[in-house]
Design goal:
8 helices, globular
Length: 226
């Protein structure tokens, strides 16, 4: 009886609500500049604790190879190049045309011509952004929102939308254009996650490739909106 009760508690909707409230509080703390540098490590640690409490592994929510390592790398690379091209030549120019505002990328201006700082940011790209954000947003949050709605097809659609509204808002420092553009990019990464059978390795690689290209372009002074 006790083990059954524990199992029910771990799958309770109230637990999900409590977890999402904690996530929201981390967002609020970050917006009020109470979190140094990045909220991603805090979200990741909380996600890890949540999975441990519920006896869920990262592998079970997608941290594994896709078909084979060759297929994982090739699919991630191709997806990253396509997403980056879409952002640079379609979504970002369209949003700028409609909103008459460039994304605010002033936080990255010091990277122009600065190889040391660019290398540091490339390291952060593959740890905090590619790995950390994919684990948190696509891996943890998409699954928890889908859990709340019963993991049906409709639940995953709701999860895809809700989580990526949050992902866009996580880039509020880039202004409204950046919020919408990053939200759309996150949405596409979420679709990749779902279309690969909820595999995290492919969007991790795609995310890392896209951001790496961005920082190289910024370093060279060639990023279109800077």
């Amino acid at each position: 009886m006790v083990s059954v009760q524990h199992s029910e508690w771990r799958q309770s909707r109230w637990l999900i609500v409590g977890e999402l409230i904690v996530v929201a509080l981390i967002f609020v703390a970050d917006a009020r500049h109470l979190i140094p540098f990045s909220k991603t490590p805090f979200l990741f640690v909380f996600a890890w604790i949540s999975l441990r409490v519920r006896r869920v592994t990262w592998q079970s929510i997608g941290l594994t190879r896709y078909k084979s390592w060759g297929a994982t790398l090739a699919t991630g690379l191709l997806a990253g190049l396509i997403l980056e091209a879409f952002q640079l030549f379609v979504s970002q120019p369209f949003l700028i045309h409609v909103l008459h505002k460039n994304p605010n990328l002033e936080d990255f201006r010091d990277l122009i011509g600065n190889i040391r700082l660019t290398l540091i940011f490339l390291g952060l790209t593959w740890t905090l952004a590619a790995f950390g954000e994919e684990m948190v947003y696509r891996g943890y949050l998409m699954n928890r929102v889908a859990d709340f709605f019963g993991r049906t097809r409709r639940a995953w659609i709701i999860s895809l939308i809700v989580v990526h509204v949050g992902f866009g808002l996580a880039h509020a420092y880039q202004g409204i254009t950046g919020i919408l553009d990053e939200g759309l990019t996150g949405l596409l990464l979420g679709i990749i996650y779902l279309r690969t059978g909820r595999n995290l390795s492919v969007p991790i690689i795609a995310h890392g490739i896209g951001d790496t290209i961005d920082f190289i372009l910024i370093f060279l002074g060639k990023y279109p909106t800077m």
